[in-house]
């Protein structure tokens, strides 16, 4: 569809989502390997990072003198939002209001409307969309409508309805924005809330779909309409790696849209893979990891980083890495070497060992031995659906265990493959005597 360009005059707005204000990074303490506590300065910075990122968004809006701010859900980390999160959110919105910038807000699955809310009045320039129906609000400049924003909030955590169906572009709106927290096309790694297809959104005649929910930045369609996820402005856990931020959107007089990424995260999560292939001694391994991490930090502009290292590849040092407490010692030694300044730290969260012995598992799987049989069974399980189902059934006893289950999630197909691979490596370590 499209073709609605009525000439709004040029405008600029910021699109952010998934602020998760006051996220406490509880998972971090649990995942810290290698003993030793996470330093106070690192934890403090992380716990303040969601607020810092929001302030960076507000600063951007004010510095760029934008026309309006869009916040596409999961403003808060939990439905029973902390008082602190609500006060800090208001502070930012007041700064925007003082600069004459309106803000449009929907709530998502994390901060749905059934949760607790303090009695805090937001500035009149802020519109929080209701959880009952899609509403539309005009954006005015000098009394003239320059854009219209439509949106809806979540009444509860699990919304299974396709909300896209409820949206309709209003007549005569010069630039129409739809604000929605949803999963487009069943994107993996995120709950399939308010599920919809890209086609559902394309057909509605809007100019811009401001989405939230998926924490990775993605422009699903560049124009006619532009459909985008800004990602979260601050990574919340070790798997939310890389640069995080919001989108600064420029619209020309002819409704041509350009989207610019703007980084906002004070702390970066990174995952760094290092292969042990060709490394012959332990000190070289230590120095190699240190060097890789420092180079990574330079490339990231020297910002604070919390890093995870994944050791992989086949090599001679595998036999040391599988020793009890070796990896823990490695973490401790690296932490002593890496920068730990109050502000500009490079904190090593953990080292995961996924290395293999210097053997040819393929060759071994053909041999008529217990190990050979086991390895060929593993090869089969990677492709055979019945075997995979059997394996999942066995694993479910562990995943559903009341205590162990708290730390585990159902593995996806890739993870199941990794588990099988590790099982093969473990079998080689335990059963192979080094002779053919
Ligand atoms: Mn979220």
What would a concise description of this structure say?
This protein is of the alpha/beta class and 436 residues long. The protein has 11 helices and 15 strands.
Helical amount among residues, as a percent range?
25-40%
Q: Radius of gyration over alpha carbons?
A: 25 Å
Give the names of the bound compounds: manganese (II) ion
Mass-distribution shape: globular
Structural notes for this entry:
The protein is of the alpha/beta class. It has 3 domains: 253 residues, Metallo-dependent phosphatases (Purple Acid Phosphatase, chain A, domain 2, 4-Layer Sandwich); 92 residues, no CATH class; 76 residues, no CATH class. The strands form 3 sheets. A 6-stranded mixed β-sheet has the order 4-3-2-1-11-12, covered by helices on one side. The chain has a 6-stranded mixed β-sheet with strand order 5-6-7-8-10-9. It is globular, with a radius of gyration of 25 Å. It binds manganese (II) ion. The site of manganese (II) ion has 5 residues, from loops.
